[in-house]
Amino acid sequence: MAKLKILTAGDPLLKKKSEKVQRIDKKTVRLLKDMAETMYAAEGVGLAAPQIGILKRLVVIDVGDGLWELINPEIVKKEGSVMSCEGCLSVPDYEGEVERAETVDCVFTDTRGRRLAVSAQGLLAIALQHELDHLDGVLFIDKAQSIMPKPKKDPLAELAQEKKQ
Ligand SMILES: [Zn+2]
Description:
The protein is 27% helix and 33% strand. The protein is α+β, with helices and mostly antiparallel strands. It has one domain: Peptide deformylase (Peptide Deformylase). The strands form 2 sheets. The protein has a 5-stranded antiparallel beta sheet with strand order 1-2-3-6-7. Zinc ion binds at residues 88-90, 130, 134.
């Protein structure tokens, strides 16, 4: 497995629409594994193939309860709305408030070629909408109602603070 380089906002590939995967082969499975490894190494909850420069409809997500590997995912139903604070591995220095559907039904193909469906809510629903946007060249900063710099974590400053207490 290999860690891949994550493209950041400003790279034209992030604005492109990705193509459907026509054939699921060993390369597809391997790419999904590499994407998962890249996501975990960057401590993200999701990664879409265009973020590593590959314009294919492939997404990995793990919101803390296991890995989802999604081939040609499509949201077929949306309900409700929620505002939440989102970040993105391709926009490392910022976060923003984005309005999303509260629950979504998503259909996708798994690595064995089976077409499956998932009804999602909470963080998984938000992650699905965020990652599927990447497949259409949309970043959260394109639809956020407010964008702010991420608080910088400075381990030394945190340590100094701890000692004072
Ligand atoms: Zn993202």
